[in-house]
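[stage:ingest] chain + small molecule (pyridoxal-5'-phosphate)
[stage:ingest] validated
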Amino acid sequence: MEDHRKVLAETFDIIQEYIDSLNNPAQKVNEFMLPEALKSRFDFELRANGTPYNALLDFIRQYLHLSVKTGSKQYLNQLFGGLNLPALLGEFITSLSNTSMYTYEVAPVATLMEMEIVRKMNSFTRFTHGDGTFLTGGSNTNLVAMITARNHLFPEGKEKGMAHLPTLTAFVSERSHFSFTKAANAIGLGTQNLKKVAVDNHGKICSRALTEAIEASLNRGEVPFFIGATCGTTEMGAFDNLAELVPVARRYNMWLHADGSWGGSAIMSPNWRHLFNGIEQCDSFSWNPHKLMNIPLICSVLLVKDASVLREALSSDDTSYIYHNDDSSQYDLGPKSLQCGKRVDSLKLWLAWKYFGDEGYVARINHLFALAQYATSVIEQHPRLELMCPTQTLNVNFRYVPASGDEADKFNHKIRQSLVESGKSMVNYCHLPNGLSIRLILLNPDLEKSDIDRFFRNYLTEAKMIEEKSVTKV
Ligand SMILES: Cc1ncc(COP(=O)(O)O)c(C=O)c1O
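[stage:predict] done
[stage:export] C-alpha coordinates:
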Protein backbone atom coordinates (compact mmCIF):
# COMPACT_ATOMS: atom_id res chain seq x y z
CA MET A 1 0.00 0.00 0.00
CA GLU A 2 1.23 3.46 -0.82
CA ASP A 3 2.24 5.59 2.12
CA HIS A 4 -1.04 6.87 3.58
CA ARG A 5 0.66 10.01 4.90
CA LYS A 6 1.66 11.01 1.38
CA VAL A 7 -1.83 10.33 0.05
CA LEU A 8 -3.43 12.32 2.86
CA ALA A 9 -1.01 15.22 2.45
CA GLU A 10 -1.74 15.39 -1.28
CA THR A 11 -5.47 15.16 -0.67
CA PHE A 12 -5.28 17.99 1.84
CA ASP A 13 -3.35 20.07 -0.70
CA ILE A 14 -6.19 19.55 -3.15
CA ILE A 15 -8.73 20.52 -0.49
CA GLN A 16 -6.73 23.60 0.39
CA GLU A 17 -6.55 24.69 -3.26
CA TYR A 18 -10.27 24.12 -3.66
CA ILE A 19 -11.11 26.23 -0.61
CA ASP A 20 -8.77 29.01 -1.81
CA SER A 21 -10.43 28.96 -5.23
CA LEU A 22 -13.86 29.65 -3.70
CA ASN A 23 -12.72 33.17 -2.92
CA ASN A 24 -11.30 33.78 -6.35
CA PRO A 25 -13.74 35.93 -8.36
CA ALA A 26 -12.50 34.32 -11.58
CA GLN A 27 -13.56 30.88 -10.34
CA LYS A 28 -16.71 29.63 -12.06
CA VAL A 29 -19.56 28.35 -9.91
CA ASN A 30 -20.02 25.40 -12.21
CA GLU A 31 -18.75 23.84 -15.42
CA PHE A 32 -22.05 23.50 -17.17
CA MET A 33 -22.27 20.21 -19.08
CA LEU A 34 -25.19 18.11 -20.21
CA PRO A 35 -25.03 14.44 -19.14
CA GLU A 36 -23.73 13.07 -22.46
CA ALA A 37 -20.88 15.59 -22.54
CA LEU A 38 -20.01 14.83 -18.93
CA LYS A 39 -20.02 11.09 -19.61
CA SER A 40 -17.47 11.58 -22.34
CA ARG A 41 -15.35 13.87 -20.17
CA PHE A 42 -15.09 11.70 -17.04
CA ASP A 43 -14.18 8.03 -16.77
CA PHE A 44 -17.19 6.76 -14.79
CA GLU A 45 -16.79 3.05 -15.59
CA LEU A 46 -15.97 0.67 -12.74
CA ARG A 47 -13.74 -2.17 -13.97
CA ALA A 48 -12.34 -5.48 -12.82
CA ASN A 49 -8.89 -4.03 -12.23
CA GLY A 50 -8.16 -1.50 -9.48
CA THR A 51 -6.62 1.96 -9.67
CA PRO A 52 -3.64 3.35 -7.73
CA TYR A 53 -3.94 6.33 -5.41
CA ASN A 54 -2.29 8.80 -7.77
CA ALA A 55 -5.06 8.11 -10.30
CA LEU A 56 -7.67 8.43 -7.56
CA LEU A 57 -6.28 11.84 -6.68
CA ASP A 58 -6.78 12.85 -10.29
CA PHE A 59 -10.37 11.70 -10.10
CA ILE A 60 -10.81 13.77 -6.93
CA ARG A 61 -9.37 16.84 -8.72
CA GLN A 62 -11.68 16.30 -11.67
CA TYR A 63 -14.66 15.66 -9.40
CA LEU A 64 -14.09 18.97 -7.64
CA HIS A 65 -13.51 20.80 -10.92
CA LEU A 66 -16.66 19.48 -12.57
CA SER A 67 -18.96 19.74 -9.55
CA VAL A 68 -21.00 22.78 -8.61
CA LYS A 69 -19.09 25.00 -6.16
CA THR A 70 -21.79 25.39 -3.56
CA GLY A 71 -19.32 27.22 -1.31
CA SER A 72 -18.91 29.95 -3.94
CA LYS A 73 -20.35 33.36 -3.18
CA GLN A 74 -22.11 33.29 -6.55
CA TYR A 75 -23.97 30.11 -5.57
CA LEU A 76 -27.34 31.62 -4.67
CA ASN A 77 -29.39 28.78 -5.99
CA GLN A 78 -30.66 26.54 -3.28
CA LEU A 79 -31.25 26.39 0.44
CA PHE A 80 -27.79 25.13 1.36
CA GLY A 81 -24.29 26.34 0.64
CA GLY A 82 -21.37 28.33 1.96
CA LEU A 83 -18.26 26.90 3.51
CA ASN A 84 -18.30 26.31 7.24
CA LEU A 85 -14.80 25.26 8.21
CA PRO A 86 -15.39 23.95 11.75
CA ALA A 87 -18.32 21.93 10.44
CA LEU A 88 -16.21 20.62 7.55
CA LEU A 89 -13.64 19.39 10.06
CA GLY A 90 -16.45 17.62 11.88
CA GLU A 91 -17.53 16.00 8.63
CA PHE A 92 -14.03 14.61 8.07
CA ILE A 93 -13.76 13.33 11.61
CA THR A 94 -17.20 11.74 11.43
CA SER A 95 -16.11 9.60 8.50
CA LEU A 96 -12.76 8.92 10.09
CA SER A 97 -14.27 7.63 13.33
CA ASN A 98 -17.16 5.97 11.44
CA THR A 99 -19.70 4.89 13.98
CA SER A 100 -23.45 4.65 14.35
CA MET A 101 -25.55 6.67 16.74
CA TYR A 102 -27.92 3.93 17.85
CA THR A 103 -26.26 3.03 21.13
CA TYR A 104 -24.30 5.04 23.64
CA GLU A 105 -21.85 2.13 23.74
CA VAL A 106 -20.63 2.64 20.14
CA ALA A 107 -21.01 6.42 20.01
CA PRO A 108 -20.52 7.78 23.54
CA VAL A 109 -19.26 11.27 22.72
CA ALA A 110 -21.51 11.81 19.71
CA THR A 111 -24.52 10.70 21.75
CA LEU A 112 -23.88 13.30 24.44
CA MET A 113 -23.23 15.91 21.75
CA GLU A 114 -26.55 15.13 20.07
CA MET A 115 -28.31 15.38 23.44
CA GLU A 116 -26.64 18.71 24.18
CA ILE A 117 -27.64 20.10 20.77
CA VAL A 118 -31.24 19.02 21.27
CA ARG A 119 -31.21 20.64 24.73
CA LYS A 120 -29.73 23.81 23.30
CA MET A 121 -32.21 23.97 20.41
CA ASN A 122 -35.09 23.42 22.80
CA SER A 123 -33.92 26.40 24.83
CA PHE A 124 -34.90 28.44 21.73
CA THR A 125 -38.22 26.68 21.10
CA ARG A 126 -38.90 26.80 24.87
CA PHE A 127 -39.94 23.14 24.82
CA THR A 128 -39.04 22.88 28.50
CA HIS A 129 -39.95 19.18 28.72
CA GLY A 130 -38.98 18.47 25.14
CA ASP A 131 -36.74 16.13 23.25
CA GLY A 132 -35.56 15.67 19.68
CA THR A 133 -33.74 13.49 17.23
CA PHE A 134 -31.40 13.96 14.30
CA LEU A 135 -32.82 12.79 10.98
CA THR A 136 -31.76 12.44 7.39
CA GLY A 137 -33.09 15.74 6.02
CA GLY A 138 -35.93 18.21 6.43
CA SER A 139 -38.28 16.01 4.42
CA ASN A 140 -37.75 13.19 6.85
CA THR A 141 -38.26 15.44 9.84
CA ASN A 142 -41.68 16.31 8.41
CA LEU A 143 -42.39 12.63 7.77
CA VAL A 144 -41.41 11.61 11.28
CA ALA A 145 -43.42 14.50 12.74
CA MET A 146 -46.47 13.11 10.93
CA ILE A 147 -45.85 9.54 12.10
CA THR A 148 -45.31 10.75 15.66
CA ALA A 149 -48.52 12.78 15.54
CA ARG A 150 -50.52 9.85 14.21
CA ASN A 151 -49.16 7.36 16.75
CA HIS A 152 -49.58 9.78 19.62
CA LEU A 153 -53.18 10.66 18.78
CA PHE A 154 -54.10 7.14 17.59
CA PRO A 155 -51.79 4.70 19.41
CA GLU A 156 -53.49 1.69 17.79
CA GLY A 157 -52.20 2.95 14.41
CA LYS A 158 -48.69 1.82 15.28
CA GLU A 159 -49.60 -1.87 15.60
CA LYS A 160 -52.76 -2.23 13.60
CA GLY A 161 -52.10 0.22 10.82
CA MET A 162 -54.20 2.78 9.01
CA ALA A 163 -56.92 0.29 8.08
CA HIS A 164 -58.00 0.31 11.73
CA LEU A 165 -58.24 4.08 11.91
CA PRO A 166 -60.88 6.46 10.62
CA THR A 167 -59.98 8.47 7.50
CA LEU A 168 -57.39 10.93 8.80
CA THR A 169 -56.69 14.28 7.19
CA ALA A 170 -53.70 16.61 7.45
CA PHE A 171 -53.50 20.32 6.56
CA VAL A 172 -50.68 22.41 5.16
CA SER A 173 -50.56 25.59 3.13
CA GLU A 174 -50.51 25.47 -0.64
CA ARG A 175 -47.00 26.97 -0.40
CA SER A 176 -45.68 24.31 1.98
CA HIS A 177 -42.85 22.01 0.95
CA PHE A 178 -43.64 18.94 -1.16
CA SER A 179 -42.20 16.71 1.56
CA PHE A 180 -45.61 16.80 3.28
CA THR A 181 -47.15 15.19 0.19
CA LYS A 182 -44.44 12.53 0.29
CA ALA A 183 -45.06 12.03 3.99
CA ALA A 184 -48.80 11.60 3.35
CA ASN A 185 -47.90 8.94 0.81
CA ALA A 186 -45.33 7.23 3.05
CA ILE A 187 -47.52 6.89 6.14
CA GLY A 188 -50.48 5.60 4.15
CA LEU A 189 -52.58 8.71 4.74
CA GLY A 190 -52.97 9.12 1.00
CA THR A 191 -51.94 12.29 -0.76
CA GLN A 192 -55.60 13.23 -1.30
CA ASN A 193 -56.00 13.43 2.45
CA LEU A 194 -53.33 16.08 2.69
CA LYS A 195 -55.37 19.26 2.29
CA LYS A 196 -53.63 22.30 0.83
CA VAL A 197 -54.98 25.48 2.32
CA ALA A 198 -54.99 28.90 0.64
CA VAL A 199 -52.39 31.51 1.54
CA ASP A 200 -52.55 35.30 1.68
CA ASN A 201 -50.56 37.42 -0.75
CA HIS A 202 -47.47 37.09 1.47
CA GLY A 203 -47.64 33.31 1.14
CA LYS A 204 -48.78 32.71 4.75
CA ILE A 205 -51.53 30.21 5.47
CA CYS A 206 -54.97 31.82 6.01
CA SER A 207 -56.20 30.62 9.36
CA ARG A 208 -59.79 31.22 8.36
CA ALA A 209 -59.39 29.06 5.24
CA LEU A 210 -57.73 26.46 7.45
CA THR A 211 -60.66 26.39 9.86
CA GLU A 212 -63.08 26.09 6.95
CA ALA A 213 -61.09 23.23 5.47
CA ILE A 214 -61.04 21.44 8.82
CA GLU A 215 -64.80 21.92 9.24
CA ALA A 216 -65.40 20.63 5.70
CA SER A 217 -63.32 17.57 6.48
CA LEU A 218 -65.29 16.92 9.68
CA ASN A 219 -68.52 17.25 7.72
CA ARG A 220 -67.28 14.53 5.37
CA GLY A 221 -66.83 12.26 8.41
CA GLU A 222 -63.03 12.44 8.34
CA VAL A 223 -60.77 13.03 11.33
CA PRO A 224 -58.42 16.02 10.97
CA PHE A 225 -55.30 15.24 12.99
CA PHE A 226 -52.30 17.25 11.76
CA ILE A 227 -51.51 20.84 10.85
CA GLY A 228 -48.13 21.46 9.22
CA ALA A 229 -47.23 25.15 9.46
CA THR A 230 -44.15 26.53 7.70
CA CYS A 231 -41.48 28.80 9.18
CA GLY A 232 -39.83 29.99 5.99
CA THR A 233 -41.49 28.77 2.82
CA THR A 234 -39.22 27.41 0.13
CA GLU A 235 -40.18 29.95 -2.50
CA MET A 236 -41.20 33.16 -0.73
CA GLY A 237 -39.58 32.71 2.69
CA ALA A 238 -42.96 33.31 4.36
CA PHE A 239 -43.63 32.46 7.99
CA ASP A 240 -47.07 31.15 8.90
CA ASN A 241 -48.49 32.84 11.97
CA LEU A 242 -48.06 30.13 14.60
CA ALA A 243 -49.81 32.06 17.34
CA GLU A 244 -52.95 32.12 15.17
CA LEU A 245 -52.72 28.40 14.45
CA VAL A 246 -52.28 27.24 18.06
CA PRO A 247 -55.94 27.86 19.06
CA VAL A 248 -57.13 26.14 15.87
CA ALA A 249 -55.05 23.05 16.66
CA ARG A 250 -56.28 23.02 20.28
CA ARG A 251 -59.92 23.49 19.31
CA TYR A 252 -59.86 20.44 17.06
CA ASN A 253 -57.40 18.39 19.14
CA MET A 254 -54.88 18.30 16.31
CA TRP A 255 -51.08 18.05 16.30
CA LEU A 256 -49.40 21.30 15.32
CA HIS A 257 -46.06 20.88 13.58
CA ALA A 258 -43.90 23.81 12.43
CA ASP A 259 -41.62 23.13 9.49
CA GLY A 260 -38.62 25.35 10.11
CA SER A 261 -36.43 23.35 7.75
CA TRP A 262 -35.48 26.53 5.94
CA GLY A 263 -36.16 29.45 8.29
CA GLY A 264 -35.90 27.60 11.60
CA SER A 265 -32.37 28.67 12.48
CA ALA A 266 -33.52 32.32 12.58
CA ILE A 267 -35.13 31.48 15.91
CA MET A 268 -31.69 32.11 17.44
CA SER A 269 -31.77 35.79 16.55
CA PRO A 270 -33.59 38.08 19.02
CA ASN A 271 -34.27 40.37 16.02
CA TRP A 272 -36.28 37.64 14.28
CA ARG A 273 -37.63 35.65 17.24
CA HIS A 274 -41.04 37.29 16.79
CA LEU A 275 -41.49 35.26 13.59
CA PHE A 276 -41.77 32.20 15.83
CA ASN A 277 -44.30 33.56 18.34
CA GLY A 278 -46.39 30.59 19.43
CA ILE A 279 -43.67 27.99 18.75
CA GLU A 280 -43.58 26.98 22.42
CA GLN A 281 -47.15 25.73 22.03
CA CYS A 282 -46.50 23.72 18.87
CA ASP A 283 -46.06 19.98 19.23
CA SER A 284 -43.01 19.63 17.01
CA PHE A 285 -40.54 21.67 15.02
CA SER A 286 -38.22 20.85 12.09
CA TRP A 287 -34.87 22.66 12.21
CA ASN A 288 -32.32 22.03 9.47
CA PRO A 289 -28.82 23.23 10.35
CA HIS A 290 -27.70 22.14 6.88
CA LYS A 291 -29.58 25.10 5.49
CA LEU A 292 -29.27 28.38 7.39
CA MET A 293 -26.44 27.24 9.70
CA ASN A 294 -24.34 26.17 6.68
CA ILE A 295 -23.54 22.74 8.06
CA PRO A 296 -22.58 20.30 5.28
CA LEU A 297 -25.54 18.14 4.21
CA ILE A 298 -27.10 16.25 5.99
CA CYS A 299 -27.89 17.82 9.34
CA SER A 300 -31.56 17.98 10.39
CA VAL A 301 -33.32 17.85 13.69
CA LEU A 302 -36.89 17.15 14.74
CA LEU A 303 -37.76 18.70 18.11
CA VAL A 304 -40.82 17.70 20.11
CA LYS A 305 -42.56 19.47 22.98
CA ASP A 306 -43.36 16.29 24.92
CA ALA A 307 -40.28 14.19 25.60
CA SER A 308 -42.19 10.89 25.66
CA VAL A 309 -43.69 10.98 22.18
CA LEU A 310 -40.71 9.95 20.02
CA ARG A 311 -39.98 6.74 21.90
CA GLU A 312 -43.69 5.97 22.17
CA ALA A 313 -44.19 6.46 18.42
CA LEU A 314 -41.00 5.01 16.99
CA SER A 315 -39.55 2.30 19.23
CA SER A 316 -39.96 -1.36 18.39
CA ASP A 317 -39.60 -4.34 20.71
CA ASP A 318 -37.67 -6.84 18.56
CA THR A 319 -34.29 -5.26 19.24
CA SER A 320 -32.66 -7.28 22.01
CA TYR A 321 -29.64 -8.10 19.82
CA ILE A 322 -28.65 -4.45 19.89
CA TYR A 323 -30.30 -2.62 22.78
CA HIS A 324 -29.23 -4.23 26.03
CA ASN A 325 -30.41 -3.32 29.43
CA ASP A 326 -27.26 -1.95 30.94
CA ASP A 327 -25.97 1.10 32.81
CA SER A 328 -25.96 3.40 29.80
CA SER A 329 -28.99 2.12 27.89
CA GLN A 330 -31.21 5.04 28.82
CA TYR A 331 -28.78 7.09 26.74
CA ASP A 332 -29.32 4.97 23.60
CA LEU A 333 -30.78 7.22 20.91
CA GLY A 334 -31.81 4.40 18.55
CA PRO A 335 -35.19 3.60 20.16
CA LYS A 336 -36.50 7.08 19.33
CA SER A 337 -35.36 6.86 15.73
CA LEU A 338 -36.86 5.16 12.67
CA GLN A 339 -33.40 4.08 11.60
CA CYS A 340 -31.08 1.36 12.74
CA GLY A 341 -27.69 2.65 11.54
CA LYS A 342 -27.67 6.39 12.21
CA ARG A 343 -24.89 8.65 10.99
CA VAL A 344 -23.13 11.02 13.36
CA ASP A 345 -24.48 14.37 12.20
CA SER A 346 -24.02 15.96 15.60
CA LEU A 347 -20.24 16.40 15.63
CA LYS A 348 -20.06 18.85 12.72
CA LEU A 349 -22.88 20.98 14.16
CA TRP A 350 -21.46 20.81 17.66
CA LEU A 351 -18.02 21.96 16.45
CA ALA A 352 -19.51 24.83 14.43
CA TRP A 353 -21.73 25.92 17.32
CA LYS A 354 -18.81 25.67 19.74
CA TYR A 355 -16.72 27.77 17.34
CA PHE A 356 -19.23 30.51 16.50
CA GLY A 357 -21.25 30.41 19.72
CA ASP A 358 -24.84 31.66 19.77
CA GLU A 359 -23.48 35.16 19.26
CA GLY A 360 -21.58 34.26 16.10
CA TYR A 361 -24.63 32.59 14.60
CA VAL A 362 -26.91 35.48 15.53
CA ALA A 363 -24.49 37.89 13.83
CA ARG A 364 -24.35 35.69 10.70
CA ILE A 365 -28.13 35.40 10.51
CA ASN A 366 -28.71 39.13 11.10
CA HIS A 367 -26.15 39.91 8.41
CA LEU A 368 -28.06 37.75 5.92
CA PHE A 369 -31.37 39.44 6.71
CA ALA A 370 -29.70 42.81 6.13
CA LEU A 371 -28.29 41.58 2.82
CA ALA A 372 -31.75 40.45 1.72
CA GLN A 373 -32.94 44.00 2.33
CA TYR A 374 -29.97 45.33 0.39
CA ALA A 375 -30.71 43.05 -2.59
CA THR A 376 -34.33 44.20 -2.43
CA SER A 377 -33.27 47.84 -2.57
CA VAL A 378 -31.08 47.14 -5.61
CA ILE A 379 -34.12 45.69 -7.38
CA GLU A 380 -36.39 48.52 -6.33
CA GLN A 381 -33.96 51.11 -7.61
CA HIS A 382 -33.38 49.50 -11.00
CA PRO A 383 -35.83 50.54 -13.72
CA ARG A 384 -35.78 47.11 -15.40
CA LEU A 385 -35.98 44.91 -12.30
CA GLU A 386 -39.21 44.09 -10.57
CA LEU A 387 -39.87 42.48 -7.17
CA MET A 388 -42.20 39.52 -7.53
CA CYS A 389 -43.32 39.53 -3.89
CA PRO A 390 -42.39 41.50 -0.79
CA THR A 391 -39.11 40.32 0.73
CA GLN A 392 -40.02 38.93 4.12
CA THR A 393 -36.91 37.03 5.13
CA LEU A 394 -34.05 35.58 3.05
CA ASN A 395 -35.74 34.80 -0.27
CA VAL A 396 -35.62 37.70 -2.71
CA ASN A 397 -37.94 37.13 -5.65
CA PHE A 398 -37.55 39.29 -8.73
CA ARG A 399 -37.50 39.36 -12.49
CA TYR A 400 -36.15 41.43 -15.35
CA VAL A 401 -38.71 43.36 -17.34
CA PRO A 402 -37.70 43.04 -21.01
CA ALA A 403 -37.71 46.22 -23.07
CA SER A 404 -39.14 44.61 -26.15
CA GLY A 405 -42.37 43.47 -24.58
CA ASP A 406 -41.12 39.87 -24.82
CA GLU A 407 -42.91 37.57 -22.47
CA ALA A 408 -41.19 38.05 -19.08
CA ASP A 409 -41.43 34.39 -18.00
CA LYS A 410 -39.65 33.05 -21.07
CA PHE A 411 -37.17 35.89 -21.07
CA ASN A 412 -36.13 35.40 -17.44
CA HIS A 413 -35.94 31.67 -17.93
CA LYS A 414 -33.51 32.32 -20.79
CA ILE A 415 -31.42 34.72 -18.71
CA ARG A 416 -31.21 32.31 -15.85
CA GLN A 417 -30.25 29.43 -18.11
CA SER A 418 -27.62 31.45 -19.88
CA LEU A 419 -26.20 32.65 -16.55
CA VAL A 420 -25.97 29.10 -15.23
CA GLU A 421 -24.29 27.96 -18.46
CA SER A 422 -21.78 30.79 -18.18
CA GLY A 423 -20.75 29.62 -14.71
CA LYS A 424 -20.76 33.23 -13.49
CA SER A 425 -23.61 32.92 -10.98
CA MET A 426 -26.09 30.23 -10.11
CA VAL A 427 -29.60 31.18 -9.10
CA ASN A 428 -32.87 29.28 -9.29
CA TYR A 429 -36.42 30.19 -10.18
CA CYS A 430 -39.89 29.30 -9.03
CA HIS A 431 -43.44 29.97 -10.13
CA LEU A 432 -45.40 32.53 -8.16
CA PRO A 433 -49.00 33.57 -8.89
CA ASN A 434 -47.69 36.55 -10.94
CA GLY A 435 -45.30 34.49 -13.03
CA LEU A 436 -41.84 33.00 -13.18
CA SER A 437 -39.71 34.46 -10.43
CA ILE A 438 -35.94 34.42 -9.98
CA ARG A 439 -35.44 33.30 -6.40
CA LEU A 440 -32.29 34.74 -4.92
CA ILE A 441 -31.35 32.94 -1.71
CA LEU A 442 -29.25 34.67 0.93
CA LEU A 443 -27.70 32.06 3.15
CA ASN A 444 -23.96 32.27 2.79
CA PRO A 445 -22.84 34.53 5.65
CA ASP A 446 -19.55 35.27 3.91
CA LEU A 447 -21.50 37.25 1.30
CA GLU A 448 -20.97 40.97 1.17
CA LYS A 449 -22.84 43.74 -0.63
CA SER A 450 -20.23 43.60 -3.38
CA ASP A 451 -21.17 39.94 -4.06
CA ILE A 452 -24.80 40.96 -4.41
CA ASP A 453 -23.80 43.77 -6.77
CA ARG A 454 -21.77 41.30 -8.77
CA PHE A 455 -24.72 38.94 -9.02
CA PHE A 456 -26.99 41.67 -10.39
CA ARG A 457 -24.27 42.81 -12.79
CA ASN A 458 -24.02 39.25 -14.09
CA TYR A 459 -27.78 38.92 -14.39
CA LEU A 460 -28.20 42.23 -16.17
CA THR A 461 -25.29 41.52 -18.53
CA GLU A 462 -26.92 38.27 -19.63
CA ALA A 463 -30.25 40.09 -20.04
CA LYS A 464 -28.61 42.74 -22.20
CA MET A 465 -26.85 40.15 -24.35
CA ILE A 466 -30.07 38.26 -24.96
CA GLU A 467 -31.89 41.47 -25.78
CA GLU A 468 -29.18 42.51 -28.23
CA LYS A 469 -29.24 39.11 -29.88
CA SER A 470 -32.99 39.26 -30.38
CA VAL A 471 -32.71 42.78 -31.87
CA THR A 472 -30.01 41.61 -34.32
CA LYS A 473 -32.19 38.65 -35.34
CA VAL A 474 -35.06 41.02 -36.18
C1 LIG B 1 -39.69 24.53 3.93
C2 LIG B 1 -38.93 23.27 3.62
N1 LIG B 1 -39.25 22.13 4.24
C3 LIG B 1 -38.60 20.98 3.99
C4 LIG B 1 -37.58 20.92 3.07
C5 LIG B 1 -36.89 19.63 2.79
O1 LIG B 1 -35.61 19.62 3.34
P1 LIG B 1 -34.52 18.57 2.83
O2 LIG B 1 -34.08 19.04 1.49
O3 LIG B 1 -33.46 18.64 3.87
O4 LIG B 1 -35.19 17.25 2.78
C6 LIG B 1 -37.22 22.09 2.38
C7 LIG B 1 -36.16 22.05 1.36
O5 LIG B 1 -35.86 22.98 0.70
C8 LIG B 1 -37.91 23.29 2.66
O6 LIG B 1 -37.62 24.44 2.02
